[in-house]
Each structure stands twice: as structure tokens, then as C-alpha cells.
Amino acid sequence: MKPAPFAYDAPETLEEALAFLAAGGEDVKPLAGGQSLVPLLNFRLARPDRIVDLNGVSELDYLRRHGDVLRIGALARSGDLERSVDVAAGWPLLAEAARHVGHPQIRARGTVCGSVAHADPAAELPVALAALDARFHVRSARGPRTLAADEVFVSFLTTALEPDELLVEIEVPAPPRRTGAAFVEHARTHGDFALGGAAAVLSLGEEGACVDARLALLAAGATPVRAQESESLLVGSAPVADVLDAAADAVVRDLALTGRDVDWRRALLRELARQALGTAATRAAA
């Protein structure tokens, strides 16, 4: 199919892009990588009156380390995370998650910020960013604001961004030393939509006890799911097998899953959470 007719703007600066978004009203969509938006347009599931193409806004095209913070611009691609030496060294969870995003052609075009703005709960990068306590910087002609992961993701394919707002940067703090992270998922075929997944980040103290724990699930709800009960169980304990088992049990106990395969999905998510926690603990100890 072909998309419904729309007006097209190609700004060259961020200010121009924000002005076009402000003038577009409710029916305007920004276009970056297009890996989510273009299929929706072609199937006419999205019918915006106006498209604002961001690819000419070079000031948004960056992925850089600034001290202990990784800054991801709106035009940084998933493949950039996968190949970055800085990301591999300081934020290996993002590099690991990026390798699960679709296929190389998709990672070459799809943007990190675009994946967040699309807000598919089965997407890898939003879950990894939630586990890393990322901050999301939003701009509009009205001014800037910053959102946490539990603020930006509202429901299935829904974020807190207003129609005239643009996610311009993601800020990811570096995990402390003696931290291990792991990302695992299950899909029917490589590159297909994940049926479940988990991102774990564990930080150990000098005595080997867990001093910080973060665990997030994908395809477990309408948004990325942070497992706060499991995180509380882990902090203060050594990440030995029975502790990790208890944390994995807790992560799925209260999930509001629906459908005919609830028991299978609950068991899958429990196993993926256990795998992620075990690998993260091993990497932290190393």
C-alpha cells in the first residue's frame, strides 16, 4: 500500500524543526529512521497531515561520551550503539541490546530516540534504557523538559510527549565499577518481535553483596516493566543461586498478563529474568 497524502517539511536546524512541529497541530509526525513510522504510513494505520523530516538537522546526529554520561542524539542509529567503542566499554548493556534489534539494515536506519518515541513494549532499547535509569530530554517551541523512564512511557505505543514535542537527547549515566549487565530475549526467529526479554544491571560492593540492582522486562506489559520487588530482594544480599531464583520468582508474580498462553509467557519471562540476573552477577564479580 501507499501512504495517504501529507505535507512534507525538511528543516535544517532544530529550531526550524520545532517550529514546524508547533505549526502542525495534532496531526504532525517527526521522521528520523522511519523503521516504525513508514510501515504505519504504508498500511494507513497512521495518517498525519504533515511529516517533519529530521535527517537534515545535523546537530541532532551524535553519540558521545561526556565524562560519566553517554549522550544519544535524536539521529543516532541503533547500529551506532552496536559499533561504538565507548558504549561497549561503559554501557555494554546498550550494545548487547542493540544487537537484538531487527536486522543490520534496520539497525543502520532506525534511531534510538525513535524506538523510545514509538514505545513498543516488545522493543529492546527502551527496556535497556529503563534498566540504566536513563533520562529523556524533550524540546518544543514552548521550552525543554526532562523525563524519567517511568514518566515517558505511558501505555502501549503511547508516551508522555505532546504532538509538538521532540525527544532530542537521551542521557545515560555510567554504571559504577564492579557492575555487570546482561540482556536476553526470546523470539521465534532472529530479528522477529520478541516474545519476552530481560535486562539486568547488578552492582556489587567490596564484600560481594549487591549494592544496587535493576531489572526490566520487555513484552511483559503495556510499557517496559521495572521489577522493583526483585530489585529490593537483591540489594544487600550476595547474588547466589537461591537469591537469584527468588528474585526471578518475584519478577513474574504480579504481572498482569493476558491471553491464552499466560502460563507459558510467565514461565518464559521468569527464565529470561533468571538468565539475565545470573549473567549480570557473573560479569559483576569478574
CATH architecture classification of the largest domain: 2-Layer Sandwich
Provide the domain count. Answer: 3
Instruction: Estimate the helix proportion, in percent.
Output: 25-40%
| Largest sheet properties | 5 strands, antiparallel
| Number of distinct beta strands | 14
- CATH class wording of the largest domain: Alpha Beta
**What is the chain-wise order of helices and strands?**
EHEHEEEHHHHHHEEHEEEEEEEHHH
Q: Give the end-to-end Cα distance, rounded to a whole number of Å.
A: 52 Å
CATH topology grouping of the largest domain: Uridine Diphospho-n-acetylenolpyruvylglucosamine Reductase, domain 3
| Class inferred from helices and paired strands | alpha+beta
| Strands side by side in the biggest sheet | 4-5-10-6-7
Broad shape: globular
- Measured by DSSP, the beta-strand proportion falls in 25-35%
Q: List low-pLDDT spans.
A: none
